[in-house]
Design a protein that fits this description.
The protein has 2 domains: 169 residues, Beta-Lactamase, CATH 3.30.450; 104 residues, Homeodomain-like (Arc Repressor Mutant, subunit A, Orthogonal Bundle). The protein is 57% helix and 14% strand. The strands form 2 sheets. A 5-stranded antiparallel sheet has the order 3-2-6-5-4, sandwiched between helices. α4 crosses α5 and α10 crosses α12.
């Protein structure tokens, strides 16, 4: 998690939004982990659907995919979820860094109740749910007009912007990036990749990429390659007897031919030529 959150203020804001619109909001962090919801309890229809393990996994995947899409769009994204209900997500940016996502959902938006029931039952057919029970849960939902959802999504984006203005969300950029940079510098010869770093420091791939571009001018993988090649240059000059294959291994390259290719691209010549070139 790259950000810190004022949960007390957030809960108050979500409560106000719910009282105005009747729509439940969930806030996710930059790694798509749920932080807070209001109301906390899911709607009955969603709790019924999520009793199925596969359906619950699909819910989480649907949320993650929607957050990613909104991040790319830099705007609210309205969509039908895997269960046939309408949802919207708005990204929260601090500068160019996505730090959180606001999602509202579980809305029943169809021309009429019968058509909507049929669509939801069809969407959930893969989960082996009791259709009679599902139909009763859907029967309890009120139809929400598309225009209302669009207006609510626009207000949601305004709320997302306000979160940063009122410092309900603040970025721990300096601290987190310093930790990541220190770790990469000390472990670049090991099997490092973006997935490992995201898991270790609890950050999202999009956020890590944005940090890398801002601080290194390139992606994480390219930056690690540059560190390895700089280390290889030092070893080539400091120990002219060390086999180049061993140098490649010490710098984190398990494929000798790949090492030669990368070194030649970044250094402008082969490792052997570099070793005996003028210092």
């Amino acid at each position: 998690m790259l950000s810190t959150f004022d949960y007390e203020k957030l809960e108050g804001l979500l409560k106000d939004y719910y009282q105005m619109t009747g729509i439940r909001i969930t806030i996710f962090d930059d790694s798509f982990h749920e932080l807070i919801s209001y109301p906390e309890k899911l709607p009955d229809v969603c709790r019924f659907i999520r009793q199925n393990e596969e359906a619950e996994k699909a819910c989480h995947q649907c949320d993650r995919d929607a957050c990613r899409t909104a991040s790319v769009k830099h705007a609210p994204y309205v969509y039908r979820c895997h269960a046939g209900l309408t949802e919207a997500v708005a990204p929260v940016f601090l500068g160019s860094i996505p730090v959180a996502y606001l999602l509202f959902g579980h809305l029943f938006s169809y021309p009429d109740k019968k058509e909507g029931q049929a669509q939801v039952i069809k969407a959930c057919s893969r989960y082996g749910l009791d259709n009679d029970k599902l139909e009763k849960y859907v029967e309890g939902l009120s139809i929400v007009e598309k225009t209302y959802i669009l207006s609510a999504s626009h207000i949601l984006q305004a709320v997302a912007s306000y979160l940063c203005m009122d410092r309900m969300i603040t970025l721990r950029q300096q601290e987190t990036m310093a930790q990541i940079d220190e770790y990469i510098t000390g472990h670049f010869a090991e099997d490092l990749d973006v997935t490992f770093l995201c898991e270790r420091f609890g950050v999202g791939k999009t956020s890590l990429y944005a940090f890398a571009k801002q601080n290194y001018g390139c992606g994480i993988a390219e930056y690690i390659r540059k560190l390895r090649i700089e280390h290889a240059k030092r070893l080539l000059r400091e120990d002219t007897e060390m086999p180049i294959a061993l140098i490649a291994e010490k710098c984190g390259f398990h494929d000798y031919n790949y090492f030669i290719t990368v070194f030649s691209r970044l250094a402008g010549c082969s490792p052997r030529k570099y070793r005996y070139s003028e210092k």
